[in-house]
Amino acid sequence: MSEMSDFLENALVNAVFRNTAYTSPPAVYAALYTIDPSDSGGGTEVAGNGYARAAITFTAPSNGMVAANLTTFPTATAAWNSITAMGIFDTTTGGNLLVWTPLDTFKYVGTNDVLSFPAGSVTVTFA
């Protein structure tokens, strides 16, 4: 993922340089978009038709990077259409966008499709 949200940037700067506590979320969740968000949020997250954010877990960091384990979304009960971006949030609904990235290739999700990202295919780098 290439884009850190304004929320996370400010939380980390405050924690490191202003001694303002930031509590890490107990879990994080991948979200899919049909219109890309920006660092300040927005975009159009998939909604309905069996969609739910997917829990996403990561390997230990190396050189400022973590790689996600296998991440699988629920079966689409109707088309989700073209997925253009992925974001990671601190809750299953609502919450704060932490990082996001446009997909290298749009992925069409139709009825009964199951979208998954293989282990290592999603990475987050703080550089």
Write a concise synopsis of the structure shown.
This protein is 9% helix and 37% strand. The protein is mainly beta and 127 residues long. It has one domain (3-119).
List the helices and strands and how they pair.
Layout: E1 3-4, H1 6-17, E2 28-35, E3 44-45, E4 54-56, E5 65-67, E6 71-72, E7 81-89, E8 97-109, E9 116-117, E10 123-125
Antiparallel strand pairs: 1-8, 2-3, 2-4, 2-7, 5-10, 6-9, 7-8
Report on the structure:
It is a single chain. The chain is mainly beta and 127 residues long. The chain has one domain (3-119). It contains 1 helix and 10 strands, in the order E-H-E-E-E-E-E-E-E-E-E. It has one helix at residues 6-17, and strands at 3-4, 28-35, 44-45, 54-56, 65-67, 71-72, 81-89, 97-109, 116-117, 123-125. Strands 1, 2, 3, 4, 7 and 8 form a 6-stranded antiparallel beta sheet that branches. A two-stranded antiparallel sheet has the order 5-10. Strands 6-9 form a two-stranded antiparallel ribbon. Strand 7 (81-89) and strand 8 (97-109) form a beta hairpin. The termini are close together. The model has no long low-confidence stretch (mean pLDDT 95).
